[in-house]
Amino acid sequence: MSGQAYNSFSRAFLEWLFKDQRPRDLLVWSAKTYSPDEHYWASLNDMYHNQHLDAPGGFFGDPEKKGYLTKFILWTYENSRFKCHGRAVHNICNFNALDLPTIVSQLHLAANKYDLTMDPVAYACMEELLENRTVTPDPKFNKRRYETLYFVRNNFKRKTEVSGG
After folding, report:
1. What is this entry's stated membrane topology (predicted)?
2. Among 30, 51, 66, 158, which residue is least crowded by beta carbons within 10 Å?
């Protein structure tokens, strides 16, 4: 199982991670794999294949359909969905100010990657936007866009079934 190295976790998941021996055993084993960080987090979160782990907040849907919300990464392959206006390094876009409309249109919580030596304005603009959204939340914010995401539905659906709610 492979997934992103960037993730968001619930407090219950993190408590389980540090108290249960199984995540530590998997971490030791994962150290010998090609991409341990991606393999480790994806395996712990995958309740579709690894229900025996019983990780709090784990994902019960098909991992191939999951999608990611934590960090927006613009890969610069030929069939990329978005154009990179910045500079590609290892097929990952280092954003510049012209990429900002694409970034803010995404549902992700953060974006990867900014190079302050290339375009500090892009980073400064995003920093200001996040600060403004924190201080003055948008009254038009639609949480339904997040509630209907496939991986959110498959997490909550299973949690409700398990708790009997």
Report:
1. Single-pass type II membrane protein
2. 51
Provide the whole-model pTM. Answer: 0.70
SS3 (DSSP) at 66: coil
User: Residue 75 is encoded by which pair of tokens?
Assistant: 């890969």
Do the Cβ atoms of 114 and 123 come closer than 8 Å? yes
What is the crossing angle of helices 21-30 and 36-45, to 10°? 150
Name the DSSP letter for residue 73: E
pLDDT digits (tens, 9 = 90+) for 46-99: 777 888 888 888 777 777 777 777 889 999 988 889 999 999 999 999 999 999
Kindly give the residue spans of alpha helices, DSSP state H, lying in the chain: 11-19, 21-30, 36-45, 100-104, 120-135, 144-147, 150-163
CA–CA distance from 144 to each of 45, 141, 151, 162 (Å)? 23, 9, 14, 23
Question: What is the C-alpha to C-alpha distance for residues 140 and 91, in angstroms, rounded to an integer?
Answer: 35
Distance CA 59, CA 153 (A): 9
- Cα Rg, the chain, nearest whole Å: 18
Question: At residue 4, what is the residue type?
Answer: Q
